[in-house]
């Protein structure tokens, strides 16, 4: 191994260890300033830069890629999306194949170098997905294919069918959206339980209104509610229901029970209360999903 290869390997391993620590500390999104507080060989090394492709001077291949944060209603500067093969498409820097950033991406692809991919949760806050690999380049579309899956070492033994490619696309898209579901839901609800307003992140879940296996159970904020663990469990067990008008109901047999303070204050007093809602209309729970889930609660009751 040459000195340059050794530096490349050590830097990437150090970066992943750095992101492991930050991910444990900031499970719902890492501030960019904290991500960039990365020291390698005694030197601070930025991992997130404008416009989004990072190649430190001591490397020849790209180290990280980033999708820019787009405020609601604004047009994204780069249209990163999923291709028919199920892989994320990451746009070149501009349209010049010889641009230094594009050469750095190409070098990472040729070397099969693992990168970190930063996806915005909100302005200046990211989820880190790693390792990811650049596996193909489309010069006509000015983009690279990014593999977010686990199995990146071996090519398929035979060409995939269109159905298999669509399935792979769905799995990859689901993986990315599931990673982003919790931080986006908790940020929309200001890290508070939508029922009791508890504000301790470690005690909160991002609950689905309609479950994963449902046709409309997508991991998107309008299908999510921030709930503390007791209310999440009660919701899943149909002890608590939420009407389409966002009023909470508690099952009649639970209301009639006599027990300790958790039952009284934690469940029974929720009956008739109204959900704490996100400030943004677009993040608020979808009434049609609430209605369908409420009918399930009514049937169970």
TrEMBL record:
An example molecular function term from Gene Ontology annotations: endonuclease activity
Domain HNH nuclease: 193-242
Organism (species): Dactylosporangium aurantiacum
Domain of life: Bacteria
Spans traversing the lipid bilayer: none
Protein name, entry field: HNH endonuclease
Keyword set, alphabetical order: Endonuclease, Hydrolase, Nuclease
Region Disordered, annotated ranges: 277-301
Bias type Basic and acidic residues, positions: 280-301
Pfam families the UniProt entry points to: HNH_2
KW Nuclease (keyword) present: yes
């Amino acid at each position: 191994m040459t000195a340059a290869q050794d530096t490349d390997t050590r830097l990437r391993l150090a970066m992943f260890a750095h992101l492991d620590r930050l991910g444990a500390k900031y499970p719902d999104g890492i501030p960019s300033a904290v991500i960039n507080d990365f020291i390698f060989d005694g030197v601070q090394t930025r991992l997130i830069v404008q416009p989004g492709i990072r190649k430190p001077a001591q490397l020849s291949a790209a180290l990280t890629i980033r999708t820019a944060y787009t405020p609601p209603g604004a047009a994204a500067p780069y249209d990163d999306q999923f291709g028919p093969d199920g892989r994320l498409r990451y746009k070149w820097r501009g349209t010049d194949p010889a641009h230094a950033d594009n050469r750095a991406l190409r070098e990472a692809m040729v070397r099969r170098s693992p990168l970190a991919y930063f996806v915005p949760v909100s302005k200046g806050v990211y989820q880190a997905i790693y390792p990811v690999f650049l596996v193909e380049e489309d010069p006509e579309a000015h983009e690279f294919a990014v593999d977010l899956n686990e199995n990146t070492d071996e090519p398929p033994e035979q060409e995939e069918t269109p159905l298999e490619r669509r399935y792979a696309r769905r799995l990859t898209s689901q993986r990315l959206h599931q990673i982003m579901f919790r931080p986006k839901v908790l940020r929309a609800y200001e890290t508070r339980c939508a029922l009791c307003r508890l504000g301790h992140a470690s005690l909160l879940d991002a609950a689905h209104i309609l479950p994963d296996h449902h046709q409309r159970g997508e991991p998107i904020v309008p299908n999510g509610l921030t709930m503390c663990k007791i209310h999440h469990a009660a919701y899943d067990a149909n002890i608590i229901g939420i009407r389409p008008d966002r009023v909470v109901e508690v099952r009649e047999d639970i209301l009639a029970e006599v027990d300790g303070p958790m039952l009284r204050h934690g469940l029974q007093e929720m009956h008739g209360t109204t959900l704490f809602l996100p400030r943004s209309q677009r993040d608020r729970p979808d009434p049609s999903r609430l209605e369908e889930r409420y009918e399930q609660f009514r049937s169970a009751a």
